[in-house]
Amino acid sequence: MKDRYDVIIAGAGVAGLNCALHVPVDKSVLIICKGTPDKSDSYLAQGGICRLKDENDFESYYADTMRAGHGENNPAAVECMIRNSPAVIDGLIELGVDFARDKDGSLAYTREGGHSENRICYHEDCTGKEITAKLMQKVSALKNVEIAPETVMLDIICADNECFGIVALQKSTGGVKKIFSDYTVLATGGIGGVFEKSTNFRILTGDGVAICLKHGVAVDHVNYVQIHPTTLYSEKDGRSFLISESVRGEGALLLDKDFNRFTDELQPRDVVTAEILKQMKKDGTAYVWLDMRPVPEEELKTHFPAIVARCAEEGYDVFRECVPVVPAQHYFMGGIRSDLQGRTTMPRLYAVGETCCNGVHGANRLASNSLLESLLFAKRAAEDIKESYCNADRATALRAAERLDMNEYQNADAILQKYKNDIIRAIKEAENVKSRN
Ligand SMILES: Cc1cc2nc3c(=O)[nH]c(=O)nc-3n(C[C@H](O)[C@H](O)[C@H](O)COP(=O)(O)OP(=O)(O)OC[C@H]3O[C@@H](n4cnc5c(N)ncnc54)[C@H](O)[C@@H]3O)c2cc1C
Predict the structure, then answer these.
(1) CB 369 within 8 A of CB 360
(2) C-alpha separations of 121 from 176, 355, 367, 375 in Å
(3) DSSP type of residue 13
Protein backbone atom coordinates (compact mmCIF):
# COMPACT_ATOMS: atom_id res chain seq x y z
CA MET A 1 0.00 0.00 0.00
CA LYS A 2 1.31 3.44 -0.92
CA ASP A 3 1.13 6.57 1.25
CA ARG A 4 -1.09 8.42 -1.17
CA TYR A 5 -3.84 7.76 -3.73
CA ASP A 6 -6.10 10.08 -5.67
CA VAL A 7 -9.20 8.34 -4.29
CA ILE A 8 -9.58 6.03 -1.29
CA ILE A 9 -12.72 3.91 -1.01
CA ALA A 10 -13.45 2.22 2.32
CA GLY A 11 -15.64 -0.79 1.52
CA ALA A 12 -15.69 -3.44 -1.21
CA GLY A 13 -19.41 -4.17 -1.52
CA VAL A 14 -21.43 -3.12 -4.56
CA ALA A 15 -21.22 0.56 -3.60
CA GLY A 16 -17.42 0.66 -3.19
CA LEU A 17 -16.80 -1.46 -6.28
CA ASN A 18 -19.16 0.44 -8.56
CA CYS A 19 -17.67 3.71 -7.41
CA ALA A 20 -14.16 2.45 -8.26
CA LEU A 21 -15.34 1.25 -11.64
CA HIS A 22 -16.47 4.75 -12.60
CA VAL A 23 -13.52 6.77 -11.28
CA PRO A 24 -11.47 7.87 -14.33
CA VAL A 25 -8.69 5.37 -15.11
CA ASP A 26 -6.00 8.06 -14.86
CA LYS A 27 -6.75 8.39 -11.13
CA SER A 28 -5.17 5.99 -8.64
CA VAL A 29 -7.70 4.27 -6.38
CA LEU A 30 -7.27 2.28 -3.18
CA ILE A 31 -10.17 0.08 -2.01
CA ILE A 32 -9.90 -1.34 1.49
CA CYS A 33 -12.15 -3.82 3.23
CA LYS A 34 -12.32 -4.99 6.79
CA GLY A 35 -12.31 -8.74 6.05
CA THR A 36 -11.87 -10.75 2.87
CA PRO A 37 -13.58 -9.17 -0.15
CA ASP A 38 -16.43 -11.70 -0.09
CA LYS A 39 -17.43 -10.66 3.44
CA SER A 40 -19.79 -7.90 2.38
CA ASP A 41 -23.57 -7.89 2.65
CA SER A 42 -23.65 -7.35 -1.09
CA TYR A 43 -22.67 -11.01 -1.48
CA LEU A 44 -25.65 -12.04 0.65
CA ALA A 45 -28.45 -10.32 -1.25
CA GLN A 46 -30.96 -12.96 -2.22
CA GLY A 47 -34.18 -11.51 -3.58
CA GLY A 48 -32.99 -9.27 -6.37
CA ILE A 49 -32.81 -5.74 -7.72
CA CYS A 50 -35.71 -3.55 -8.81
CA ARG A 51 -36.13 -2.16 -12.29
CA LEU A 52 -38.67 0.22 -13.78
CA LYS A 53 -40.23 -2.17 -16.30
CA ASP A 54 -41.79 0.53 -18.44
CA GLU A 55 -43.10 4.06 -18.13
CA ASN A 56 -46.56 2.75 -17.12
CA ASP A 57 -45.05 1.33 -13.92
CA PHE A 58 -43.45 4.61 -12.77
CA GLU A 59 -46.35 5.90 -10.65
CA SER A 60 -46.87 2.54 -9.00
CA TYR A 61 -43.16 1.89 -8.27
CA TYR A 62 -42.81 5.44 -6.90
CA ALA A 63 -45.94 5.05 -4.73
CA ASP A 64 -44.76 1.65 -3.38
CA THR A 65 -41.36 3.11 -2.42
CA MET A 66 -42.95 6.12 -0.69
CA ARG A 67 -45.59 4.01 1.07
CA ALA A 68 -42.96 1.59 2.43
CA GLY A 69 -40.88 4.60 3.58
CA HIS A 70 -43.89 6.15 5.36
CA GLY A 71 -43.63 9.15 3.05
CA GLU A 72 -40.40 10.25 4.72
CA ASN A 73 -38.41 9.57 1.54
CA ASN A 74 -36.69 12.32 -0.43
CA PRO A 75 -38.91 12.54 -3.57
CA ALA A 76 -36.03 13.71 -5.79
CA ALA A 77 -33.83 10.81 -4.70
CA VAL A 78 -36.62 8.29 -5.27
CA GLU A 79 -37.38 9.66 -8.73
CA CYS A 80 -33.68 9.69 -9.63
CA MET A 81 -33.31 6.04 -8.55
CA ILE A 82 -36.39 4.78 -10.37
CA ARG A 83 -35.69 6.67 -13.62
CA ASN A 84 -32.11 5.39 -13.71
CA SER A 85 -32.91 1.78 -12.80
CA PRO A 86 -33.09 0.45 -16.42
CA ALA A 87 -29.63 1.93 -17.11
CA VAL A 88 -28.23 0.33 -13.92
CA ILE A 89 -29.57 -3.10 -14.94
CA ASP A 90 -28.29 -2.65 -18.52
CA GLY A 91 -24.86 -1.78 -17.10
CA LEU A 92 -24.87 -4.96 -15.01
CA ILE A 93 -25.89 -7.06 -18.01
CA GLU A 94 -22.97 -5.53 -19.94
CA LEU A 95 -20.68 -6.65 -17.10
CA GLY A 96 -21.96 -10.18 -17.64
CA VAL A 97 -24.51 -10.40 -14.82
CA ASP A 98 -26.88 -13.23 -15.64
CA PHE A 99 -30.47 -12.36 -14.68
CA ALA A 100 -33.31 -14.89 -14.89
CA ARG A 101 -35.16 -14.76 -18.21
CA ASP A 102 -38.63 -15.68 -19.40
CA LYS A 103 -39.06 -18.24 -22.18
CA ASP A 104 -39.00 -15.46 -24.81
CA GLY A 105 -35.63 -14.22 -23.51
CA SER A 106 -36.94 -11.07 -21.82
CA LEU A 107 -36.04 -10.33 -18.18
CA ALA A 108 -38.08 -12.34 -15.67
CA TYR A 109 -39.48 -10.35 -12.76
CA THR A 110 -40.35 -11.55 -9.28
CA ARG A 111 -42.14 -9.78 -6.43
CA GLU A 112 -41.55 -9.03 -2.74
CA GLY A 113 -43.54 -7.43 0.08
CA GLY A 114 -44.70 -3.85 -0.47
CA HIS A 115 -44.55 -4.13 -4.28
CA SER A 116 -47.81 -3.95 -6.17
CA GLU A 117 -46.14 -5.35 -9.32
CA ASN A 118 -43.53 -7.95 -10.23
CA ARG A 119 -40.53 -5.70 -11.01
CA ILE A 120 -37.53 -7.40 -9.40
CA CYS A 121 -34.73 -8.87 -11.53
CA TYR A 122 -32.98 -11.84 -9.94
CA HIS A 123 -30.44 -14.60 -10.29
CA GLU A 124 -31.79 -17.65 -8.44
CA ASP A 125 -31.66 -16.68 -4.73
CA CYS A 126 -28.13 -15.31 -4.91
CA THR A 127 -28.50 -12.11 -6.94
CA GLY A 128 -26.02 -10.23 -4.73
CA LYS A 129 -23.26 -12.78 -5.25
CA GLU A 130 -23.83 -12.79 -9.01
CA ILE A 131 -23.60 -8.98 -9.19
CA THR A 132 -20.77 -8.47 -6.69
CA ALA A 133 -18.55 -11.22 -8.07
CA LYS A 134 -18.87 -9.81 -11.61
CA LEU A 135 -18.13 -6.30 -10.36
CA MET A 136 -15.14 -7.58 -8.40
CA GLN A 137 -13.80 -9.36 -11.50
CA LYS A 138 -14.04 -6.14 -13.50
CA VAL A 139 -12.52 -3.90 -10.81
CA SER A 140 -9.67 -6.35 -10.08
CA ALA A 141 -8.62 -6.08 -13.72
CA LEU A 142 -8.27 -2.28 -13.53
CA LYS A 143 -4.62 -1.19 -13.43
CA ASN A 144 -5.40 2.02 -11.53
CA VAL A 145 -7.16 0.22 -8.67
CA GLU A 146 -5.47 -1.53 -5.75
CA ILE A 147 -7.57 -3.67 -3.40
CA ALA A 148 -6.36 -4.14 0.17
CA PRO A 149 -8.33 -6.79 2.08
CA GLU A 150 -8.14 -7.20 5.87
CA THR A 151 -7.47 -3.48 6.16
CA VAL A 152 -9.55 -1.48 8.61
CA MET A 153 -10.26 2.24 8.44
CA LEU A 154 -9.87 3.47 12.01
CA ASP A 155 -10.31 7.17 11.28
CA ILE A 156 -10.20 9.88 8.65
CA ILE A 157 -7.51 12.55 8.36
CA CYS A 158 -9.29 15.89 8.46
CA ALA A 159 -8.91 19.52 9.43
CA ASP A 160 -11.22 22.52 9.24
CA ASN A 161 -14.01 20.29 7.93
CA GLU A 162 -12.03 18.97 4.96
CA CYS A 163 -10.98 15.36 4.45
CA PHE A 164 -7.47 14.37 3.36
CA GLY A 165 -7.45 10.58 3.68
CA ILE A 166 -7.68 7.85 6.29
CA VAL A 167 -5.88 6.10 9.13
CA ALA A 168 -5.88 2.35 8.45
CA LEU A 169 -4.85 -0.80 10.24
CA GLN A 170 -3.30 -3.60 8.17
CA LYS A 171 -4.39 -6.70 10.03
CA SER A 172 -1.60 -8.88 8.58
CA THR A 173 1.18 -6.74 10.09
CA GLY A 174 -0.71 -4.94 12.85
CA GLY A 175 0.71 -1.70 11.42
CA VAL A 176 -1.33 1.50 11.45
CA LYS A 177 -0.77 3.88 8.56
CA LYS A 178 -1.86 7.34 7.44
CA ILE A 179 -2.90 7.25 3.80
CA PHE A 180 -3.56 10.51 1.96
CA SER A 181 -6.06 11.12 -0.83
CA ASP A 182 -7.73 13.93 -2.70
CA TYR A 183 -11.09 12.24 -2.15
CA THR A 184 -12.31 9.65 0.35
CA VAL A 185 -15.45 7.58 -0.18
CA LEU A 186 -17.13 5.81 2.72
CA ALA A 187 -18.88 2.64 1.48
CA THR A 188 -18.76 0.78 4.78
CA GLY A 189 -22.21 -0.83 4.63
CA GLY A 190 -24.69 -1.45 7.42
CA ILE A 191 -24.65 -1.68 11.20
CA GLY A 192 -25.97 -5.21 11.81
CA GLY A 193 -22.85 -6.20 13.76
CA VAL A 194 -23.94 -4.04 16.71
CA PHE A 195 -27.14 -6.12 17.10
CA GLU A 196 -27.33 -9.54 18.71
CA LYS A 197 -29.46 -10.98 15.90
CA SER A 198 -28.88 -9.72 12.39
CA THR A 199 -28.71 -10.99 8.83
CA ASN A 200 -25.59 -8.86 8.27
CA PHE A 201 -21.96 -9.95 8.49
CA ARG A 202 -20.80 -9.47 12.08
CA ILE A 203 -17.89 -7.23 10.97
CA LEU A 204 -20.30 -4.58 9.70
CA THR A 205 -20.56 -2.30 12.70
CA GLY A 206 -21.15 1.14 11.18
CA ASP A 207 -17.54 2.36 11.50
CA GLY A 208 -18.05 4.98 8.78
CA VAL A 209 -21.06 6.39 10.63
CA ALA A 210 -19.22 6.42 13.97
CA ILE A 211 -16.23 8.23 12.42
CA CYS A 212 -18.59 10.85 10.99
CA LEU A 213 -20.26 11.28 14.38
CA LYS A 214 -16.79 11.79 15.88
CA HIS A 215 -15.88 14.58 13.42
CA GLY A 216 -19.22 16.35 13.27
CA VAL A 217 -20.11 15.17 9.75
CA ALA A 218 -23.92 15.17 9.56
CA VAL A 219 -25.64 11.85 10.15
CA ASP A 220 -29.42 11.36 9.80
CA HIS A 221 -32.02 8.99 11.26
CA VAL A 222 -29.64 6.57 13.02
CA ASN A 223 -32.69 4.95 14.62
CA TYR A 224 -34.21 3.99 11.24
CA VAL A 225 -33.30 0.33 11.42
CA GLN A 226 -35.17 -2.29 9.42
CA ILE A 227 -36.06 -5.61 10.96
CA HIS A 228 -36.60 -8.38 8.38
CA PRO A 229 -39.69 -10.48 9.18
CA THR A 230 -38.35 -13.88 8.16
CA THR A 231 -34.99 -15.29 9.22
CA LEU A 232 -34.57 -18.98 9.95
CA TYR A 233 -35.05 -19.56 13.69
CA SER A 234 -31.96 -21.11 15.23
CA GLU A 235 -30.54 -21.39 18.71
CA LYS A 236 -27.02 -21.23 17.31
CA ASP A 237 -24.94 -18.03 17.58
CA GLY A 238 -23.85 -16.06 14.55
CA ARG A 239 -25.43 -14.43 11.56
CA SER A 240 -29.17 -15.02 11.11
CA PHE A 241 -30.02 -16.76 7.83
CA LEU A 242 -32.47 -14.76 5.74
CA ILE A 243 -35.41 -16.36 4.00
CA SER A 244 -36.05 -13.95 1.18
CA GLU A 245 -39.31 -12.12 0.92
CA SER A 246 -39.60 -13.29 -2.67
CA VAL A 247 -40.43 -16.76 -1.30
CA ARG A 248 -43.58 -15.12 0.06
CA GLY A 249 -43.85 -13.20 -3.22
CA GLU A 250 -44.10 -16.58 -4.95
CA GLY A 251 -46.78 -17.84 -2.54
CA ALA A 252 -45.27 -18.97 0.80
CA LEU A 253 -47.53 -18.37 3.82
CA LEU A 254 -46.99 -17.33 7.43
CA LEU A 255 -48.75 -19.53 9.99
CA ASP A 256 -49.27 -19.37 13.75
CA LYS A 257 -48.61 -22.18 16.25
CA ASP A 258 -51.81 -23.94 15.13
CA PHE A 259 -50.82 -23.59 11.45
CA ASN A 260 -53.42 -20.90 10.72
CA ARG A 261 -52.66 -17.85 8.56
CA PHE A 262 -52.59 -14.65 10.60
CA THR A 263 -51.56 -11.85 8.21
CA ASP A 264 -51.16 -10.71 4.61
CA GLU A 265 -47.62 -11.86 3.82
CA LEU A 266 -46.96 -9.18 1.19
CA GLN A 267 -47.35 -6.02 3.24
CA PRO A 268 -44.22 -3.86 3.75
CA ARG A 269 -41.55 -5.38 6.01
CA ASP A 270 -42.20 -3.30 9.11
CA VAL A 271 -45.90 -4.22 9.04
CA VAL A 272 -45.25 -7.96 8.60
CA THR A 273 -42.58 -7.86 11.34
CA ALA A 274 -45.03 -6.20 13.75
CA GLU A 275 -47.68 -8.82 12.92
CA ILE A 276 -45.24 -11.68 13.55
CA LEU A 277 -44.03 -10.24 16.88
CA LYS A 278 -47.65 -9.74 17.94
CA GLN A 279 -48.49 -13.32 17.00
CA MET A 280 -45.41 -14.73 18.82
CA LYS A 281 -46.47 -12.85 21.95
CA LYS A 282 -50.04 -14.11 21.68
CA ASP A 283 -48.90 -17.72 21.10
CA GLY A 284 -46.05 -17.58 23.64
CA THR A 285 -43.62 -18.87 20.98
CA ALA A 286 -40.11 -17.89 19.86
CA TYR A 287 -41.04 -18.10 16.16
CA VAL A 288 -43.89 -18.49 13.67
CA TRP A 289 -44.05 -20.96 10.78
CA LEU A 290 -43.29 -20.29 7.14
CA ASP A 291 -45.00 -22.71 4.79
CA MET A 292 -43.26 -22.89 1.42
CA ARG A 293 -45.38 -25.77 0.13
CA PRO A 294 -47.80 -23.44 -1.75
CA VAL A 295 -44.81 -22.51 -3.98
CA PRO A 296 -44.54 -25.03 -6.84
CA GLU A 297 -41.76 -27.56 -6.16
CA GLU A 298 -39.98 -26.75 -9.43
CA GLU A 299 -40.02 -23.01 -8.59
CA LEU A 300 -38.53 -23.70 -5.15
CA LYS A 301 -35.77 -25.81 -6.68
CA THR A 302 -34.81 -23.42 -9.48
CA HIS A 303 -35.47 -20.01 -7.90
CA PHE A 304 -34.47 -20.70 -4.28
CA PRO A 305 -31.83 -23.45 -4.28
CA ALA A 306 -29.67 -21.88 -1.55
CA ILE A 307 -32.63 -21.39 0.80
CA VAL A 308 -33.84 -24.96 0.23
CA ALA A 309 -30.30 -26.28 0.88
CA ARG A 310 -29.76 -24.22 4.04
CA CYS A 311 -33.12 -25.29 5.49
CA ALA A 312 -32.15 -28.92 4.74
CA GLU A 313 -28.83 -28.40 6.57
CA GLU A 314 -30.83 -27.25 9.59
CA GLY A 315 -33.03 -30.36 9.33
CA TYR A 316 -36.09 -28.96 7.50
CA ASP A 317 -37.53 -30.43 4.32
CA VAL A 318 -39.31 -27.41 2.85
CA PHE A 319 -41.22 -29.63 0.39
CA ARG A 320 -42.91 -31.49 3.24
CA GLU A 321 -42.94 -29.25 6.32
CA CYS A 322 -43.01 -25.67 7.60
CA VAL A 323 -39.85 -23.93 8.83
CA PRO A 324 -39.64 -21.74 11.96
CA VAL A 325 -38.93 -18.05 11.23
CA VAL A 326 -38.30 -15.03 13.41
CA PRO A 327 -37.60 -11.32 12.70
CA ALA A 328 -34.00 -10.02 12.94
CA GLN A 329 -32.14 -6.76 12.23
CA HIS A 330 -31.54 -6.45 8.51
CA TYR A 331 -30.97 -2.98 7.07
CA PHE A 332 -30.00 0.56 8.03
CA MET A 333 -32.08 3.31 6.43
CA GLY A 334 -30.33 6.08 8.38
CA GLY A 335 -26.69 6.98 7.96
CA ILE A 336 -24.22 9.60 6.81
CA ARG A 337 -26.13 12.49 5.24
CA SER A 338 -25.37 12.56 1.53
CA ASP A 339 -26.80 14.37 -1.44
CA LEU A 340 -27.65 12.87 -4.82
CA GLN A 341 -23.95 13.00 -5.76
CA GLY A 342 -22.90 11.18 -2.58
CA ARG A 343 -21.37 14.34 -1.07
CA THR A 344 -21.38 14.54 2.73
CA THR A 345 -21.24 17.75 4.73
CA MET A 346 -17.42 17.48 4.77
CA PRO A 347 -15.73 18.53 1.51
CA ARG A 348 -13.68 15.72 -0.15
CA LEU A 349 -15.63 13.12 1.80
CA TYR A 350 -18.35 11.06 0.08
CA ALA A 351 -20.68 8.38 1.45
CA VAL A 352 -22.46 5.78 -0.67
CA GLY A 353 -24.38 2.54 -0.21
CA GLU A 354 -26.01 1.40 3.00
CA THR A 355 -23.82 3.61 5.20
CA CYS A 356 -25.29 6.76 3.69
CA CYS A 357 -28.69 8.34 4.04
CA ASN A 358 -29.76 10.15 0.90
CA GLY A 359 -33.44 9.79 1.70
CA VAL A 360 -34.31 7.13 -0.90
CA HIS A 361 -35.70 4.72 1.68
CA GLY A 362 -37.41 7.11 4.10
CA ALA A 363 -38.30 5.36 7.35
CA ASN A 364 -38.44 1.85 5.88
CA ARG A 365 -36.81 0.41 2.77
CA LEU A 366 -38.89 -1.20 0.05
CA ALA A 367 -37.52 -4.67 -0.73
CA SER A 368 -34.84 -4.88 -3.45
CA ASN A 369 -34.30 -1.12 -3.64
CA SER A 370 -30.95 -1.17 -1.88
CA LEU A 371 -28.64 -2.86 -4.38
CA LEU A 372 -30.09 -0.46 -6.93
CA GLU A 373 -29.64 2.58 -4.72
CA SER A 374 -26.09 1.56 -3.75
CA LEU A 375 -25.01 0.98 -7.36
CA LEU A 376 -26.58 4.13 -8.77
CA PHE A 377 -25.45 6.66 -6.19
CA ALA A 378 -21.93 5.18 -6.01
CA LYS A 379 -21.60 5.73 -9.75
CA ARG A 380 -22.92 9.26 -9.38
CA ALA A 381 -20.34 9.95 -6.65
CA ALA A 382 -17.53 8.78 -8.96
CA GLU A 383 -18.88 11.02 -11.72
CA ASP A 384 -19.06 13.97 -9.33
CA ILE A 385 -15.44 13.39 -8.25
CA LYS A 386 -14.45 13.32 -11.93
CA GLU A 387 -16.31 16.52 -12.77
CA SER A 388 -15.18 18.54 -9.77
CA TYR A 389 -11.67 17.09 -9.39
CA CYS A 390 -9.32 19.43 -7.62
CA ASN A 391 -6.10 18.42 -5.86
CA ALA A 392 -6.07 18.72 -2.08
CA ASP A 393 -3.66 21.22 -0.62
CA ARG A 394 -0.66 19.08 0.41
CA ALA A 395 0.55 21.43 3.15
CA THR A 396 -2.89 21.52 4.82
CA ALA A 397 -3.17 17.73 4.50
CA LEU A 398 0.22 17.25 6.18
CA ARG A 399 -0.72 19.64 8.98
CA ALA A 400 -3.97 17.70 9.52
CA ALA A 401 -2.03 14.44 9.71
CA GLU A 402 0.55 15.85 12.11
CA ARG A 403 -2.23 16.69 14.56
CA LEU A 404 -3.15 13.00 14.87
CA ASP A 405 -1.86 11.17 17.91
CA MET A 406 -0.92 7.80 16.41
CA ASN A 407 -0.67 6.21 19.88
CA GLU A 408 -4.44 6.58 20.02
CA TYR A 409 -4.75 3.92 17.28
CA GLN A 410 -2.55 1.24 18.81
CA ASN A 411 -5.49 -0.61 20.38
CA ALA A 412 -7.70 -1.07 17.32
CA ASP A 413 -10.14 -3.42 19.08
CA ALA A 414 -10.86 -0.78 21.72
CA ILE A 415 -11.46 1.86 19.02
CA LEU A 416 -13.85 -0.40 17.11
CA GLN A 417 -15.68 -1.29 20.34
CA LYS A 418 -15.98 2.41 21.13
CA TYR A 419 -17.44 3.01 17.66
CA LYS A 420 -20.02 0.27 18.28
CA ASN A 421 -20.95 1.87 21.60
CA ASP A 422 -21.23 5.27 19.91
CA ILE A 423 -23.67 3.85 17.36
CA ILE A 424 -25.78 2.18 20.05
CA ARG A 425 -25.83 5.42 22.06
CA ALA A 426 -26.79 7.49 19.02
CA ILE A 427 -29.66 5.11 18.23
CA LYS A 428 -30.93 5.31 21.81
CA GLU A 429 -30.69 9.11 21.84
CA ALA A 430 -32.59 9.36 18.55
CA GLU A 431 -35.26 7.01 19.91
CA ASN A 432 -35.59 9.15 23.04
CA VAL A 433 -36.03 12.29 20.95
CA LYS A 434 -38.68 10.49 18.87
CA SER A 435 -40.61 9.35 21.93
CA ARG A 436 -40.54 12.89 23.39
CA ASN A 437 -42.00 14.40 20.17
C1 LIG B 1 -29.02 -11.44 3.88
C2 LIG B 1 -29.24 -10.18 3.09
C3 LIG B 1 -30.06 -10.21 1.96
C4 LIG B 1 -30.27 -9.05 1.23
N5 LIG B 1 -31.04 -9.11 0.09
C6 LIG B 1 -31.17 -8.00 -0.67
C7 LIG B 1 -31.87 -8.03 -1.91
O8 LIG B 1 -32.36 -9.08 -2.32
N9 LIG B 1 -31.96 -6.89 -2.63
C10 LIG B 1 -31.43 -5.71 -2.22
O11 LIG B 1 -31.55 -4.69 -2.92
N12 LIG B 1 -30.75 -5.64 -1.05
C13 LIG B 1 -30.60 -6.75 -0.29
N14 LIG B 1 -29.89 -6.68 0.88
C15 LIG B 1 -29.26 -5.40 1.26
C16 LIG B 1 -28.03 -5.17 0.39
O17 LIG B 1 -27.34 -6.38 0.22
C18 LIG B 1 -27.10 -4.16 1.04
O19 LIG B 1 -27.80 -3.03 1.47
C20 LIG B 1 -26.05 -3.68 0.04
O21 LIG B 1 -25.40 -4.80 -0.52
C22 LIG B 1 -25.07 -2.76 0.73
O23 LIG B 1 -23.95 -2.59 -0.09
P24 LIG B 1 -22.74 -1.72 0.44
O25 LIG B 1 -21.72 -1.77 -0.65
O26 LIG B 1 -23.21 -0.43 0.92
O27 LIG B 1 -22.23 -2.52 1.75
P28 LIG B 1 -21.63 -3.98 1.90
O29 LIG B 1 -21.85 -4.80 0.72
O30 LIG B 1 -22.08 -4.51 3.20
O31 LIG B 1 -20.06 -3.70 2.00
C32 LIG B 1 -19.50 -3.01 3.09
C33 LIG B 1 -18.00 -3.03 2.95
O34 LIG B 1 -17.44 -2.12 3.89
C35 LIG B 1 -16.31 -2.71 4.48
N36 LIG B 1 -16.05 -2.06 5.76
C37 LIG B 1 -16.88 -1.85 6.80
N38 LIG B 1 -16.26 -1.19 7.79
C39 LIG B 1 -15.00 -0.98 7.37
C40 LIG B 1 -13.85 -0.38 7.94
N41 LIG B 1 -13.87 0.16 9.17
N42 LIG B 1 -12.69 -0.36 7.22
C43 LIG B 1 -12.64 -0.92 5.98
N44 LIG B 1 -13.69 -1.49 5.38
C45 LIG B 1 -14.86 -1.52 6.07
C46 LIG B 1 -16.67 -4.17 4.58
O47 LIG B 1 -15.52 -4.96 4.78
C48 LIG B 1 -17.35 -4.38 3.23
O49 LIG B 1 -16.37 -4.62 2.24
C50 LIG B 1 -29.67 -7.83 1.64
C51 LIG B 1 -28.86 -7.81 2.77
C52 LIG B 1 -28.65 -8.97 3.50
C53 LIG B 1 -27.77 -8.92 4.71
Answers:
(1) yes
(2) 42, 24, 12, 14
(3) S
Q: Is residue 437 scored above 80 in pLDDT?
A: no
- Domains plus CATH for the chain? 4-224+333-431 (3.50.50.60), 229-329 (3.90.700.10)
pLDDT at 79: 98
Q: Where residue 246 falls among pLDDT bands split at 50, 70, 90?
A: confident
Starting at the earlier edge strand, list the strands of the sheet with 323-332. 225-232, 323-332, 288-291, 253-255
Query: What predicted TM-score, i.e. pTM, was given to this entire model?
Result: 0.95
pLDDT at residue 35, rounded to an integer: 96
- DSSP calls for 64-85: HHHHHTTT-S-HHHHHHHHHHH
Distance of CA 190 from the midpoint of ligand 1 (Å): 6
Does the C-beta of 378 come closer than 6 Å to ligand 1?
A: no
Tens digit of pLDDT for each residue in 360-369?
999 999 999 9
Mutate to test the pocket of ligand 1, among 42, 49, 120, 191 (most ligand atoms within 8 A of CB): 42
Helix (H, G, I), strand (E, B) or coil at 34: coil
Q: Which has the closest alpha carbon to 340: 84, 70, 123? A: 84
Respond yes or no: is residue 403 known to be catalytic.
Answer: no
The per-residue pLDDT for 277 is 96
Catalytic hit among 111, 269, 337, 348: 269
